[in-house]
Amino acid sequence: MSQSITDYLKDTAYPRLDAVETGLLDHLSPSNLSAGGNYVLLCPQCGKREAYYYPTHSHVNCNRKNKCGASTSLWDILAASGLTPGEIVARICEKAGVPVPERPNRRAQGNPAGQEGSEAAYVPQISPGKAIFTVTQALAKKNPQMLQTLKESRGFSDEEMALMKLGVYTTPQEVLDGLMSLGITRETAIAKGYIEVDKENPDKLLNADFGAP
Q1: Average pLDDT, the chain
Q2: Considering 79, 107, 125, which residue would you say is the last residue of a domain?
Q3: Does one domain contain both 87 and 116?
Q4: Element of type H or E holding 39
Q5: Same-domain pairing of 149 and 209
Q6: What is the model's pLDDT at position 110?
Q7: Which of 33, 47, 176, 177 is 20 to 30 A distant from 127 in Cα terms?
Q8: Which domain of life is it from (predicted)?
Q9: Alpha carbon of 209 to those of 133, 171, 206, 212: distances in Å?
Q10: How confident is the model at residue 4 (pLDDT cuts 50, 70, 90)?
Q11: Residues 161-180: pLDDT tens digits?
């Protein structure tokens, strides 16, 4: 059985990767490498310059333990920037100086013969729960005005918003597209209640209020 992409990154890529030195985290304004062997940078979750990253590690951790304390994976950081799963794998492997793993054999996955050479992006093993969290967090970063409206209407502070890690659900189609890019099937998304379809027309997605056409 071939190694999963998650294990490949953990065992092969991350141990050779300095995500700051190679520019993957430039948008978080990292410091120079400290005497302690880590970089200080903006927290991807709360935005405060109190997060830290160690070379060869897979996460950026916030030091504001009582107000944030988030541990954000490099994968989620790159996904939030708009990269597809295949692009994330390629970028991490390139910066780590390791080969990009082969895509899975599509015939073994029940695809018609002759499609093994498809250029479809290699997608990692990820749970539906993790996938919907990743998608709605990415949509929150893409649509900050929606969370700002909620914050103002409910009177939440910046710290409270950071702790809640609220995601954004825009449209069923946009959410489904995001889930499918992470390897989650339409059927799984329906079964988990992430999207709902018209009972009389299963090809039609219902809006987020689960009733409007």
Answers
A1: 82
A2: 125
A3: yes
A4: strand 39-41
A5: yes
A6: 44
A7: 47
A8: Bacteria
A9: 19, 10, 8, 6
A10: confident
A11: 888 888 899 999 999 988 88
Strand-by-strand arrangement of the 59-62 sheet: 39-41, 51-53, 59-62, 71-73
User: How far apart, in whole angstroms, are the C-alpha atoms of residue 111 and residue 29?
Assistant: 44
108 and 204 fall within a common domain? no
Cβ within 8 Å of residue 208, ≥6 positions away: 169, 170, 171, 172
- Contact between 67 and 79 under an 8 Å Cβ cutoff? The reply is no
> For residue 130, which of 82, 188, 91 has the smallest C-alpha distance?
188
pLDDT at 87: 85
Domain count for the chain: 2
Of the candidates 170, 172, 166, 163, the one whose C-alpha atom is nearest the C-alpha of residue 147 is 166
Question: What is the distance in angstroms between the CA of the first residue and the CA of the last residue of the chain?
Answer: 45
Domain ranges, residue 201: 126-213
Q: How far is Cα 185 from Cα 208, in angstroms, rounded to an integer?
A: 18
> For position 80, which CATH number holds?
3.90.580.10
Q: Which of 81, 106, 125 is the last residue of a domain?
A: 125
